[in-house]
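Researcher: I'd like a candidate sequence for this fold, 94 residues long. If you have to choose between options at a position, lean toward the conservative one.
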């Protein structure tokens, strides 16, 4: 079973996260910058789940969220920034 990326948000900030067996496996946080942008500021994956693609899954979910809400993304987090640099199909949300 592939873990599902979940979203938790309010009007100031939010996070995309993955839980496995009720425990947090990965989390990527963001803050809203005005009405039309989010800033991804941190991505963290529990060491036990390194190399499973959870970080990329969360970035993909953030891109889908941005497209759905007509938002732009500013990837301040070094991991997210690297994923955006390597993924041309995500450039429309930058």
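Model: Candidate sequence:
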């Amino acid at each position: 079973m592939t873990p599902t990326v979940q979203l938790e948000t309010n009007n100031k900030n939010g996070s995309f996260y993955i839980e496995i067996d009720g425990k947090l496996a990965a989390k990527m946080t963001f803050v809203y910058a005005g009405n039309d942008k989010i800033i991804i500021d941190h991505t963290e994956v529990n060491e036990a789940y390194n190399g499973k693609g959870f970080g990329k899954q969360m970035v993909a979910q953030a891109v889908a969220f941005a497209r759905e809400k007509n938002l732009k993304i500013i990837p301040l987090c070094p991991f997210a920034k690297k994923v955006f640099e390597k993924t041309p199909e995500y450039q429309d949300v930058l």
